[in-house]
Fold:
Amino acid sequence: MSTREDNIKKINAELEEMSDEELEQVAGGTFKETAGDTRFLNDLAGLCDRFGATKAFFYPGIVEDEASKGWSKIGITVHTGFSGSNAYYLNGEQISRQQAFEYALKKFGRNLKDLPEGKSGYAL
Structure:
């Protein structure tokens, strides 16, 4: 009989081989968006560490904390949710995730298409 640790290793190995689209079918939710936020903020200006969807799925607290810290460096507050929608705030007013990205890009004088994951990445 396998131990819990053995089973987790097997699951992690299988998840690592799955595409983002396949992972979304398995679990869905905003863990993928939060992971995308960390990659965006890292690519934009090194504002936080970057994480993939698998890490965000298994270690949501770590990834959510990192995303929150990154957003706070540019004045945006985010309330993350594992399976519910993330909520973004600028100056106390709720904004969309797209607006948060646009604000961050403008603040650093960058363009989304010039970042490594471009328009197709970051779980937009």
Notes: Strands lie at 76-79, 87-90, 93-95. The radius of gyration is 15 Å. The first strand starts at residue 76 and ends at 79.
